[in-house]
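Input.
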Amino acid sequence: MTDQQDKPWYARVPAISVALLAFLVGLTTLVNNVRDWLSDDAPAPAAAAAKPAALPATAPVPQAPRKTAVLLTLKQIEVIDDGTNGSTAWSFEIEGGGEELFALAARDYVDTGADAIALPRTSDPSIARVVLVPGQEMTIKITGRASGLISSTVARGSAKLRADGGLAPIRVLAEGGKAGEFVFHFATVATPQD
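Output.
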């Protein structure tokens, strides 16, 4: 027997067939999800609307507060003081409600010229989604770290995010009297949830 005949049948199936099968499974899942989504949004049948108008009066049922999803997007970082005479490598962690939302990997920041406004890199995550109820505030905390040859510097800042309002720019200052100051600017988009 040849080497091809010794292999099991699935090892002989061309890769294009496997890719086609995976595509069909994904497409079927997508179609089913869209169909379910559309059926959830469909209006109630006309038979349900034709109920008698004389229903006994009942006390209104209190509803739970409606949740709001807030999309938090880092727009830019103003570098007021990078901590040294030249450029300084800083990494940042952004937390919301005690949980990490995203982290920015270490990169060089400069506090002079046009480079004093740092935009998020495409490789860095810069978007997070949080869910709030009306009146709830969530503390957004930013912790920055710069490691040098002799010592490391930690910078911190925070601000409150509300479901019905935006997020003020967050000033991040180095601790212990060390140099390092940044201002983080975020955009927020709030969407009511059911």
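Residues 15-41 form the longest helix (27 residues).
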